[in-house]
Amino acid sequence: MRLDLFDRHSRLDSPVHRLPAAVKLVIAVALVLTTVLLPVSQLIGFAVVAAVLLVVAALSRIPPVFLAKRLLLLEPLALGVAMLAVFQPGGWHVFAAVMVRTNLCLLTMILLSNTTPFADLLRVLQRARVPSVMVTTLALMYRYLFVLADEVGRMSRARASRTFLAKRRTAWWSQAGIVSQLFIRSTERAERIYAAMCARGWQ
Q: Which of 13, 25, 55, 180 has the fewest CB atoms in 10 Å of its CB?
């Protein structure tokens, strides 16, 4: 199991990493709310938010290539949300605004998750009196992301060892099969885990 799969740089030694988790969470939420609530015409406001994020990224000493890869990995989500606005009157302006806002919010969350261990964020949520069900759900989700990532690796290696064709169409078909099997296995695993927890008195 790769313990640094999702928060690889969260334990670096930098001025940003040394800040209390509560302070970083409040700043991240404030930046997200500012980005969402800014009018489209306030380009200077978006530029200020982007400049703040770039300064934080530089101070955090996280490799820029890593941040760019994570942002590109989430880019289909931003495009999917923004494309819904294209079919409206003046849709391209709305599209550009949604893309800017979404990317700034995603970069904020990427910086937060890679400068703060997830366990520290959960402790902050507990102290903030967030409902325990939500905190427990987040903790379980984070824990089993690693299990699912290991499962994907095992399935990919097993499929590669049995596949002798390197055609692109075959590769896409193979990946689709892996995704469908992973969905079924993760659902079955979730049912087993829930039954085991209930059997041990969890509520």
A: 13
Residue at token pair 């640094």: 4
Q: Are 33 and 76 in contact (CB under 8 A)?
A: no
CA angle 174, 5, 103 (to 5 degrees): 85
The CA distance from 134 to 97, in Å, is 31
Lookup result for tokens 């928060």:
7
DSSP character string of 38-50: S-TT-HHHHHHHH
In this predicted model, what pLDDT tens digit does every residue of 49-97 receive, in sequence order? 999 999 999 998 888 898 888 888 888 877 877 777 667 676 677 778 8
Q: Specify the pTM.
A: 0.73
DSSP string over 95-131: HHHHHHHHHHHHHHHHHHHTTS-HHHHHHHHHHTT--
Contact 115, 16 (CB under 8 A): yes
Q: Which two tokens stand for residue 79?
A: 């495009």
Domain ranges of the chain: 21-125, 131-199
- Rounded distance, CA 185 to CA 14, Å? 40
